Amino acid sequence: MAVKVVDRSPLNFWEKTYMPQVLGGLKITLDNMLRPKVTLQYPEERPTIPDNYRGVPTLVRDPNGREKCVSCQLCEFVCPPKAIRITPGDIDDSDENAHVEKRPKDFEINMLRCIYCGMCQEVCPEEAIFLQDIYSVSGYSREELVYHKAKLYELGGTLPDQHYKWDRKKEAEEKVAAGGHH
Amino acid sequence: MDSLLLDIVIKVIFALLFVAVIMSLAAYSVLGERKVASWIQGRVGPNRTALPGISAIPVLGPQLVKLGIWQPLADGVKFLFKEDPLPGHVNKLYYCLAPCIALVPALTTMVVLPVGQYMDGDVVKPIILANVDIGILFILAFGSLGVYGIVIGGWAANSKYPYFGGIRSSAQMISYELAMGMSILPVLIWANGPNSGLAGLSLFNIVESQQGMWLGVWMPIPAFIFLVSLYAETNRLPFDMPESETELVGGFHTEYGSFKFGLFFVGEYAHMVIGSAVFTILFLGGWNFLPDFGIESLHWLSDPWALMPNWLGGPLSVIYFIGKTLFFVFLFMWVRWTLPRFRYDQVMTLGWKYLVPGALICVVAYAIIIGLWDIAFAIDQTPAIVE
Ligand code: SF4
Ligand code: SF4
């Protein structure tokens, strides 16, 4: 192994007085003082949020306005801190989305418990729950920070859909009913 | 009788003006401290406090807000309206007395502090509250009384860390007082030399004697020793032993809150401002514009204020003096955010083993130099003392 001999010569006179180091330090701080500041003036300036950011979990609709969650409750089970509570509900036969069969009656996420891990997004078979770019959560009481279904849909908005799987399933069933083959 | 009354009224007005200026300088150096700290750390510092009305003025208003001009106001009001706790375990009388004792000496010393000059006929006179001829002694004596605020505060708080802080503070004060006193002896020797007549220890005389050359330039070592002792006397980093947050939580003001703490705080900064002013007077030529190297034809360079009418020259000399002082206030802050704190034993070693002997050597050396200088150049002008 190569041996590196560290120079440990005794301090010379000037070094013993500390003055060169003190002056050097003053120069460093002066340079720092004149450098542009890195502060982000928060409420006026906002940070740029990267695409893969994990913000507040939200529920989304597909472009037809159908709520995508089918209340399978997988996210409720996977959520490590148990922040999600779902009350499943049926969809009325009269509803135009009756073929989807189920939707949550209520969907609560407790933002004080949520750890923004993104497990719910990962586990969801319907691509119905997404952690988007909302990062600033505040409220005056604990109850206020339990977000209910309406709020979650409001925050989530609509995201593009590649599959329309329920609509295609319905089409296929209708074809079968009409006597065709698949 | 009438003129006596007028005299008193003018004096009182002047005194109030002095207090106002020094106090606002102290308040604004708190702001300066926060600003300088943030700049050095790459931050922006206080830039939110707005005063309704004034801040609505376009361009100027927001700019002032950005500079944090209104912050000291908000701080002061906050200190005033906060609950003022009186812990059960303290010695009530001394607990309340200590913050006052910390502030009062700083404000007292300013009585003998000349801040500028004006012309009375042909004679240059200082702008000063009381031109006593033991000015520098007065300042040294009262300046070091400030430590009693810390010691009494630490003792009255009746808990360990403040007490440690108080003890450290008194030890430190004694050690550095010596070096400080000795480091200004060369200045006094010079100021009282035959070059400038015999005018005692008055600070005005010291400033006048520096028209040829600022003493800090050819007495760098006494100036340096004085500056270091000044840092120690005002409890500023790297010598803030009594406070040292990392070891003593906050030292003497751990048990204080609201307005009493505010008094300590302002007292510290007032000491700083006064200390900087004294340094400027002793070593940086006070309000002298630039050194004139003793050349008669260049005299306007050191004293342009005398050539101006009083209403212009007087205020300008004061402003120039305050400018120089503020530079040293800035230096205080700059050093604070650069250097780490000394260990307690290092503080003592530095004081007793280096600064005191250094100052002693300087006294002897400069006494000899000035003596030779006088014999060589100025002996014929020497008044009574040599004859
Ligand atoms: S959000 Fe997804 S995982 Fe959660 S209940 Fe709805 S469909 Fe299931
Ligand atoms: S992000 Fe994680 S913690 Fe938050 S709701 Fe989803 S699974 Fe639960």
Structure description:
The complex is a heterodimer of chains A (182) and B (387). Chain A is of the alpha+beta class and 182 residues long. Chain A has a domain at 57-162: Alpha-Beta Plaits (2-Layer Sandwich), CATH 3.30.70. Chain A is built from six helices and five strands, in the order H-H-E-H-E-E-H-E-E-H-H. Chain A has helices at residues 13-16, 19-34, 74-78, 119-123, 149-156, 165-177, and strands at 57-59, 84-90, 102-110, 129-131, 146-147. In chain A, strands 2-3-5 form a three-stranded antiparallel sheet. With 387 residues, chain B is mostly helical. Chain B has one domain (86-376). Chain B has helices spanning 2-40, 60-67, 71-81, 92-109, 135-143, 146-156, 160-183, 185-191, 203-208, 215-218, 220-233, 245-248, 258-283, 299-302, 310-336, 344-378; strands at 116-120, 123-127. Chain B has a two-stranded antiparallel sheet. In chain B, helix 3 (71-81) packs across helix 13 (258-283), helix 4 packs antiparallel against helix 5 and helix 11 (220-233) packs antiparallel against helix 16. The model of chain B has no long low-confidence stretch (mean pLDDT 81). Chain A binds chain B through residues 22, 25-26, 28-30, 32-33, 35, 37-39, 41, and chain B through 36, 39-44, 334-335, 337-339. The site of one iron/sulfur cluster (SF4) has 15 residues of chain A, from helix 4.
